[in-house]
Write a structure and sequence with these properties.
Elements: H1 8-19, H2 31-39, H3 45-59, H4 62-74, H5 91-101, H6 103-112, H7 123-146, H8 153-175, H9 183-188, H10 201-214, H11 216-229, H12 241-251, H13 254-262, H14 265-270, H15 277-287, H16 294-306, H17 316-327, H18 335-341
Helix pairs in contact: 2-7, 2-10, 5-7, 8-10, 16-17
């Protein structure tokens, strides 16, 4: 599907280039998937391996699970350990956070079971664990920002650009031994081990380079994004010749300036006057871009939840109606019309 030489994207690009005189078009993969792949560049397997093995030992056996929950209740903890799965992108952050918060109880329980976790006594490993908890939580927050409906590609770009600037800030702070935005790491690092924070700056820089590489297309589209989002503040001389006059006319129109502040991007460019053909074409090209496959995956999840082997009477027609409702952006039921079409059951007793 996505092969560089024989994939669908490659064949489609060749066809478009041959049809429009060699002009290329923009392509990029789902931003959510790219963000999830960037997380794998941390390569902290020595931490995750111990965490997953310990969690599986506690959770996979019912006796261990009940005994561990009993231990947590004795210490007034109201939550336990969740499972980790690679399919669910946000689960790693939840497992790491709970594992770090319950590290004393886990250490006690594993020693009672005769399977002590020796890594708990290693200061370097504990720092790696704390760093993974903090950085994974930051990545999960970014992932949540990229989810949701009714978003355009510029909003995804703003979130990615903001996170890259945060990575630069963290790299500078960790170089100086400051873990202000890494509370768990700051908690386990003593005064003597503050210098150990500097080794994590390489992890941050590696993550930044991964983001730069995977979202390189955004850097090429940044100028177009600025034109679309801030047409009244861009410098016309920095833009292509075909659009300079239209930007000047737009910036000198006080009425349109007020409408841009009140309306959203979609509404403003849809109702733009016919005198801005190039600007309208650019807006249509950018606003129609699919930033993520979030809606597709959401519909697939709805289908997986509803279509089960126990629901034998669920026909394809019913499932199609359910998916239509799930995929619809805004559906407002007409209650009055629905009530009129219903046949009332009148009692025969007077």
């Amino acid at each position: 599907m996505i092969g560089k030489k024989a994939g669908v994207v490659k064949k489609f690009r060749d066809k478009v280039q041959s049809a429009n005189g060699g002009l290329d078009f923009w392509t990029f993969h789902c931003i959510l998937h790219q963000e999830a792949l960037c997380c794998k560049s941390l390569k902290m397997d020595k931490v995750m391996k111990v965490v997953i093995q310990t969690v599986n030992f506690i959770q996979s056996k019912s006796l261990n699970h009940r005994q561990f929950d009993s231990l947590l209740r004795e210490k007034d903890h109201i939550y336990g350990l969740p499972y980790h799965t690679e399919v669910r992108w946000l689960s790693r952050g939840a497992v790491l956070r709970c594992f770090f918060d319950l590290r004393e109880e886990i250490e006690q329980f594993m020693e009672e079971k005769g399977k002590p976790v020796l890594e708990f006594h290693c200061a370097e490993w504990m720092q790696d664990l704390a760093f993974m908890v903090d950085v994974t939580e930051h990545l999960n927050n970014l992932n949540k920002q990229l989810q949701g409906r009714n978003k355009v590609v510029m909003q995804y770009y703003d979130s990615i650009r903001s996170f890259k600037l945060k990575l630069l800030l963290w790299e500078t702070q960790l170089t100086g031994g400051d873990a202000a935005h890494f509370p768990c790491l700051k908690n386990v690092c003593t005064t003597q081990s503050v210098a150990d924070m500097k080794r994590f700056k390489d992890k941050i820089m590696g993550l930044l380079l991964e983001f730069e590489q995977r979202f390189q297309i955004f850097g090429e589209l940044e100028k177009n994004f600025k034109v679309l989002c801030s047409p009244f503040t861009v410098n016309p001389s920095d833009l292509p010749v075909r659009i300079q006059f239209e930007i000047i006319d737009l910036q000198c129109d006080s009425d349109l300036k007020g409408k841009f502040a009140a309306a959203g991007l979609n509404t403003f460019y849809q109702n733009l006057l016919p005198g801005y053909p190039n600007l309208t074409a650019l807006a249509a090209k950018l606003l129609c871009m699919f930033g993520t496959t979030y809606l597709c995956e959401q519909v697939f999840s709805v289908m997986s939840i509803n279509k089960r082997k126990l629901r034998s009477r669920l026909t394809h027609k019913h499932l199609n109606h359910i998916l239509n409702l799930a995929a619809a952006q805004d559906v407002t039921p007409d209650i009055d019309e629905l009530v009129k079409t219903k046949r009332c059951q009148v009692s025969g007793v007077k």
